[in-house]
Amino acid sequence: MKPRNLADRPDDKKSCAVWTGTQWEIWPVSAIHPHRKTVIARCHECHGPVLLMNASKDGRNDAHFEHHPAHTGCSLAHRNFTGTKTQHPLAVSDPTKSERLAFTDYISDQAAEDIIGSVKETEKEGLLLARVGQGAFRKKLISRWGNCSVMGCGPETALVASHIVSWRACETNEERLDVNNGLLLSPNLDKLFDRRLISFSNNGALLVSPDLVPSDAVALGICAGMQPRLVPHGIVKYLARHRDGTEWCEPPIHTVTLVDLLLRS
Ligand SMILES: [Zn+2]
Questions:
Q1: How far is the CA of 88 from the centre of ligand 1 (A)?
Q2: Strands (DSSP E) along the chain, which ranges?
């Protein structure tokens, strides 16, 4: 039940386009259906709004989508199709920044198992634990870093075993468990890193997204000069993938503290 490449659009309605938080991907409706109340989905051809239908109990229909409302300009509308492809008049556009839900936050255990594929039961457990930053993946990061990879602080119980290339976006199960594909981060840094609001260059220099406004960056403890305490060679390729597809800029140069901000206001 892996997502399909957009270039490989299926010609049936068993898969639909879903907003993953940063882009549209084509996913089987059966994987999306449990999350239908929270995901943003659309027809991958005409971009129209869709209703996600579960597989019928009698097995006659697979999970699929229906246009909602109907659309005559989409070849997936079958009998209703007029023969000329047009975009749906109510096409679902890219979500605005304030509603950029990340479908991948809600991925079900079943979908996660499908992504892992067939592996030994013990390996499966490690992979599912790695997805939530636990198990052997976390242990390896703790033994490498000891405390926060960037701040050098604890407490260990509050630190997050954060994937550099997200668990879902990994191309292999080895990548999901690779200690080089992780940083041990304090919660603020983990969330900002996970949301691609901060990243690091190949030599570890902090980069920030233009979406992270300087006052928030400062309030959350982000300032110029922050970087991992060391940059093991193996993590560089993962950092490059973390930065890929996002625009980055230098962090605020000033070293304003939260106290300075409060004094100013
Ligand atoms: Zn359509």
A1: 7
A2: 15-19, 24-28, 41-42, 50-53, 64-67, 160-163, 182-185, 198-200, 206-208
Pairing mode, strands 41-42 and 50-53? unpaired
Asked whether the beta carbons of 53 and 29 are under 8 A apart, the reply is yes
Distance of CA 29 from the midpoint of ligand 1 (Å)? 14
* C-alpha of residue 101 to centroid of ligand 1, in Å: 22
**Among 170, 171, 147, 172, CA closest to 160:** 147
> Across the strands, what pairs with 53?
64
SS3 state at 213: coil
Q: Which residue do the tokens 């190949």 mark? A: 202
Q: Which helix (H) or strand (E) holds 131?
A: helix 121-131
Element (H, E) at 240: helix 236-243
Distance CA(236)–CA(159), nearest Å, equals 22
Distance in Å, CA 81 to ligand 1 centroid: 10
36: alpha, beta or left? (left if phi > 0; alpha if psi -120 to 50): alpha
> Distance (Å, rounded) from C-alpha 15 to C-alpha 203?
40
Pairing mode of beta strands 15-19, 24-28: antiparallel
Specify the residue for token string 């920044």.
Answer: 97
Confidence (pTM): 0.68
Residue in 123, 119, 138, 109 with CA at minimum distance from that of residue 34? 109
* Chain segment 168-210, per-residue pLDDT in tens: 888 899 999 999 999 999 999 999 999 889 999 999 999 999 8
Dump pLDDT digits (tens) for 217-260: 888 988 888 999 999 999 999 999 999 878 898 876 655 555 55
